[in-house]
Amino acid sequence: MSNFLERLETGVVIGDGAMGTLLYERGLPLDRCCEELVLSQSDLVKRVHEDYLAAGAQLIETNTFGANRIKLARHGLDRRVVEINVKAAQLAASLAPPRDALVAGSVGPLGIRLDEARAAGFDPRAVFQEQIGALCDGGTDVIILETFSDLEELKIALSAAQAVKKAPFICSMSFTEDGVTHNGVTLADAFASLKNAGADLVGANCCIGPHALASLFHSKLPRISDVFVSTYPNAGRPQYVDGRYYYLATPAYFAQKGVELAGCGVRLIGGCCGTGPQHIAALREALDQTRTTERGTRNVGTVSMEKPVIEILEQKRIESVAMSRELDEPTLLEIIKKRTLIVTEFDSPKTLRLDKMMEAARALKAAGTDFITVADNSLAILRMSGVAAAHLVQKETGLRALVHLACRDRNLIGTQSELMGMDALGLRHVLALTGDPSKVGDTPGATSVYDLNSITLLEGIRAMNQGRSFGGRDFKCSTRFVAGCSFNPNVKNFDVQVKRLERKIAAGARFVMTQPIFDLALARATSEATSRFKMPVLVGVMPLLGARNAEFMNNEVPGVVIPDPVRARLRGKEGAEGAAEGVKIAREVASEVLSHFHGIYLITPLTRYETTVALSSAIRNGSL
Predict the structure, then answer these.
(1) What confidence tens digit (pLDDT) does each residue in 194-245 have?
(2) Which residues pair with 511 in a beta bridge?
(3) Which terminal residue of the chain, N or C, has fewer Cβ atoms less than 10 Å from its own Cβ?
(4) What would the CATH number be for the domain defined by 339-621?
(5) Domain boundaries, the chain
(6) pLDDT tens digits, residue range 459-470?
């Protein structure tokens, strides 16, 4: 223990580089478990360690980054956690002493969120403790907890390590180039929290390259100068060529930035993704030449006390935006406190023609609808962008819009970009949805993305309302979204749906919209189940167009159940007669809904907006 800390006191310790990068370069298939190689191909792992030691690494890491019970289970290896970790530690420990090097037991995140792990029956602390205990039994000198993006998870791992053995602990997190984690924790705050929790070293690794880390440490390290700092940057940003990622930072460039990091006071420097023995060799040579031994030497420059003109102008802009936002129209949360709230859905067109949607919007506004809500390619059927359609409706008719946003069609970047655009267009209300899978739709070959689900989307929207991206980047201004979620009462496992609704509300949902219901008793049951949440619940009511429409909805539309008595009332009725009976049934359901709720969600069937206009008018006039 003292050996490693004493080395840090006297100068910079050089770590090794990426393990996975070299293993894949040397022929490992992409679907193989890297960590299992210590059992089946230990010579391959041994050569990687030897190459880094020959390059000048003074601390090598075990090949165990993903060797916890949860990650190994994906390869059917969850019963070999101890065997793999002990073997990996023994292998590294057999090679390091002759080179006067030490061994760090590598421990990465669980691979799933903490709440998901607990829901699956795992105790996160016990999972970490199992792996760390095996690494210590195998002979590691240090434990490095690395590439964590969740501070809470890292502190759980540190607590588990402390329970196993008193050994030096390195806690390393991944940050954006702005110096924040995915959930907005700053580098300085994370380091201070980890130091207080007992970490011997705090640091950053992965995600960003050496230039970004050097820039961050130049500005942030003066605030945290009372703790050892480590860094393992990537070899710059990867370039995607012919199906593979290539990192472009040369060894000479990496070494130059390593010297800069040492000048910031960093005491442990190694490499992460894209780095290899040549990067470590160049780093060792450069650091030997500079002979940096004094901890805390930094070139941070001077800072003027006067704000630059551009900063003053930016502040004025933010103040102007804030002032204009105070003049905005009331949100649905405010409207529902004063009167019955009516939200009516009308799908954007399947063609490039918007005339019918504009007609519907004007008619619905005249009938007393407060918001038009626009679906996002519902049922995975191609339609005009809901964001574009909602903006045009809001601009040309004055009827305010509530936009559905599904996770199916956009990746993490596209979803955030869409939300940024919505904020710029003044679209404040959004319904967060996971979305129907692409295979149920009308576009052969389309794929579902699902980087997010409705819960993680809600969490991301909450982050944007706090002024940061999903990844924690400072937006310099906050969005003001009023985010809602869906709830389907038309299921047998009603209680399970209520529990999922609880999770959505905890993630940031501020109102609820349901699938259409056709059962009066279900309206009462929904009221009883959701009354404790103390937020607007807009129960879906949809006028049916006749018997064929009812049978189609009941048999082919996910999430919709039409009771036998309702279908019996429509049997044999089509055309004007069927639509009239459908509106009559919808009025009965709406009356029951509004006896329990202060708002309602009307769903227009097949663009037949005259049906929802009639319902909206009856509700607003009190003539249901």
Answers:
(1) 999 999 999 999 888 888 888 888 776 665 557 799 999 998 877 655 556 6
(2) 484
(3) N
(4) 3.20.20.220
(5) 2-290, 339-621
(6) 999 999 999 999
